[in-house]
Amino acid sequence: AATKLASAEKLMYFCTDQLGLEQDFEQKQMPDGKLLVDGFLLCIDVSRGMNRNFDDQLKFVSNLYNQLAKTKKPIVVVLTKCDEGVERYIRDAHTFALSKKNLQVVETSARSNVNIDLAFSTLVQLIDKSRGKTKIIPYFEALKQQSQQIAAAKDKYEWLVSRIVKNHNETWSNVNRKMQSSPEYQDYVYLEGTQKAKKLFLQHVHRLKQEHIERRRKMYLAMLPQAFEALIPDLDEIDHLSRVKVEKLLETKPDFLKWFIVLEETPWDATSHIDNMENERIPFDLMETQPAEQLYEAHLEKLRNERKRAEMRRAFKENLETSPFITPGKPWEEARSFIMNEDFYMWLEESIYMDIYSKHQKQIIEKAKEEFQELLLEYSELFYELELDAKPSKEKMGVIQDVLGEEQRFKALQKLQAERDALILKHIHFVYHPTKETCPSCPVCVDSKIEHLISSRFIRPSERNQKNLLSDSNIDRINLVILGKDGLARELANEIRALCTNDDKYVIEGKMYELSLRPIEGNVRLPVNSFQTPTFQPHGCLCLYNSKESLSYVVESIEKSRESTIGRRDNHLVHLPLTLILVNKRGDTSGETLHSLIQQGQQIASKLQCVFLDPASAGIGYGRNINEKQISQVLKGLLDSKRNLNLVSSTSSIKDLADVDLRIVMCLMCGDPFNADDILLPILQSQTYRPSQCGSSSSV
Predict the structure, then answer these.
(1) Which of 124, 367, 404, 609 gets the most CB atoms within 10 Å of its CB?
(2) Which residues form the PG2 pseudoGTPase domain (predicted)?
């Protein structure tokens, strides 16, 4: 039968989600009048309400029950807000239900979504007796079961989110659409609602973002010590400065922007810079953080320690040089107690001191041997009366040692007696058989040096005539080696060829010359990279560099090339004209400064005794390493060198001077610091000198 209900402007709706979202559902007003009602849920609020008396509520509910009982419809008592329930109120509500024909009671919490379905299913079972009886579970037991169910659903949902969301820039709308069909998503939303699902997603995204920022922070902090090393390696420059002044100093450094980036917005971890994966420069505002300050202090301490260690090395060396206890050949174990103190042990390992001591010993031993050799020369009369085989008897050796024993230079080698005796025997052998092989200064004996000098400069007449013929045919030909690394040699060769005519001719001062180029970029000791080949005789070498590494390659290659020709008659590569040029790095403003590279190039040019050209300005064409003016300058220099060497001198001039004979007698002591080259080179460089008829290797 229909039951009349008064419903003045009441709304009815079915909410399948959290409370507070009523506006998301269809708004339908309950009609007044008679409705078909099959049962009732009699709700009792068991929470502690403001300005509300529970006993009064219970009286109201009791009166309401009396009215509902007249309908003969099933009634279930529902205790609401049990999550905030008062124990006495719950107990009184159960007592009320027992007093009213033992009504069934369901303890619920709409906020926690506990036993809500159970309340309705209990009423349905009372209405439809054919359904199985529903087991009523107390609130706290139901809450425990639901908590376990929610926790399991949450774990599965978080797993789903972590599998789908890998980037902290993902949006909820996009991810929500992807997860709609996943049971893990559906189960969690059913239990906890969409808002909590979104909240867990946002927490995951936030965690991803923080992890990403932390990885970037660690990368920046790992780079920071390298930046300090590159920009502020000098302790004197920063030791007296505050942190603020150090930051200003960093900004003035030429390579500052290679290491740092100054952002318009700060802090860096709240800007879009965190997602700029191509730019790995350090945000400058990171310097304001405590980890960066700690790294700067560590850098400062490192520089101070390095200075202190260098001071300890110098102090130790001075100790060695001034200590009377350090004599040639004295073992480290004996010397250590005389020269070491506590400060030395605090700053350096003993192995470093041992290395310094070993080098010092080598120096003083060599000096002591030289002084002992001088001593033997001063006592030359001791070695006059010996047998022809120059083997002194035991008695004679005793006499020599007795005479020399009082000399300090003899005593200096007291701990090296075997070497001292060997020097005496070697000296005796030299006195009776004076050759360059028995010379105490071997292998730098003056005889050996002069022989090598003459043999390296001398050209046989047949070879000279052959060279003259070769020169005649090559008078208008320039053979140029281009030495560079990482493509520099090949690129310049191509640029020079672009300036030549179709048949590789180049115009210098109005005259046409045939230009042959040999770019070399590898190991010059390999035949494929040799300066000289059977068909290529170089007239000069153009050396290119644009960095410290390429400059080192040039120096090593020149030295290897010169070493390979030492002792050979055709060793003109030793005096091959060289030109060193710094080329600009294309499109690269970082790296060594131009000023530093110029200084290094000038020093190397002085060492190699070659011409150094200033770096080229912009070339005549796009991407030119060297401009045409510099190329012409190099080629003119090679032509001048060819003329000075007189490669085309006629044989008639030699024939005319064949009867001229200039004899020079030189007396030099082995080990004399004066160089024989300074005397002989002006003569040997003459194109008219020839070998002596006596056949001596030391005369021309």
Answers:
(1) 404
(2) 663-700
